[in-house]
Design brief:
Order of helices and strands: EHHEEEHEHEEH
Oligomer: single chain
Strand content: 25-35%
Number of strands: 7
Strand order of the largest sheet: 1-2-3-4-5-7-6
Number of domains: 1
Structural class: alpha+beta
CATH topology: Aminopeptidase
CATH class: Alpha Beta
Distance between the termini: 5 Å
CATH architecture: 3-Layer(aba) Sandwich
CATH superfamily: Gcn5-related N-acetyltransferase (GNAT)
Length: 182
Amino acid sequence: MIELIDCEESHRWLLYEWRSSDEVRPYMYDRAEISRETHDAWYTQLLRREGRRGWIIAMDGKPVGAAFVSQHDHENRRATWAFYLADPSTRGRGVGSAVEYLVLEHAFGELGLHKLCCEVLSFNTAVVAMHKKFGFVEEGLLRDHWYRDGEWVDTHVLAMFEDAWAERRKRFGEQLRSRGLI
């Protein structure tokens, strides 16, 4: 079973390990090594929860990744989200879909958002496909947006709207429950 656990002080250095790992860093915008001081400051801001929220993704009680909602704009009822799976053994097992469902439920339920946005590097085709499967629509493509390893990389800009989620949530919830993922 997949659950989201609020980030707490005890998770500070676990997230540092993950963000510094070869499993996560290639999918981040900035792949440079993160200093302990930089991470410490970032995590302190995360715990203040001012316009952002962070969770540890747990699979059968074991921490396997993290998810974040940030840039929460209360007036315009929108935010941005991202996640990563730090444990490669979780990939291809429906964990990402369960996380997507749980975050969407939080975003459109508890937060009352109208729109949830995300950005995905173009080489991460599995995550782009997963977002679209859930009903995210592509709002744009930022061409040559990041320079990595001597090549320019595009970034997909996607969004989910509250009415689209209202139409899909029951079906996805039933599918994930039948697989024992949520």
